User: Fold this.
Amino acid sequence: MALTDALIAGLHMTFAALWTGSVLFVTVAVVPTALDGRIDSEPLAAIAGRFKLITRASVLVTLLTGAHQAATGYTVDGLLSTPQGHLVVSMVVLWLVLAGLSEVGAARLTDGTQRQKVRTPAANARPFFLAGSLVALLLLLNAGALGTPL
Assistant:
């Protein structure tokens, strides 16, 4: 493996782990705390803002690094006709779903924080973060399968 390929793979994995971990953290720690009213609106908005930054940076970096990896490691036929290719394609689909769920969840989480609300925004964001957590786990399982020779 060339140094460039190793750096790209490392960046890809780092941002994928940061993003999926952030989704899981917001789901299990931040949203329940807001639902209980144990966090004020200002810190909740700050956490959601940082989550949006992590999501957007991760989407960009994983898109670019994943495209490089796919372009150098697969042909179109290989993506559509091999088990490894199917895992790559399913990863892209899951990635798109997670990007959408992350954006909508973060937007719902901050909707109302300007009016000092936390419980309602958390309740509105919860389904998106629960679904996002499921997708994040599926992405991690998919990555594990992709890293295992079939």
Summary: Helices lie at 3-35, 41-73, 76-81, 83-110, 119-146. The CA atoms of residues 24 and 149 lie 28 Å apart. The chain has a mean pLDDT of 95.
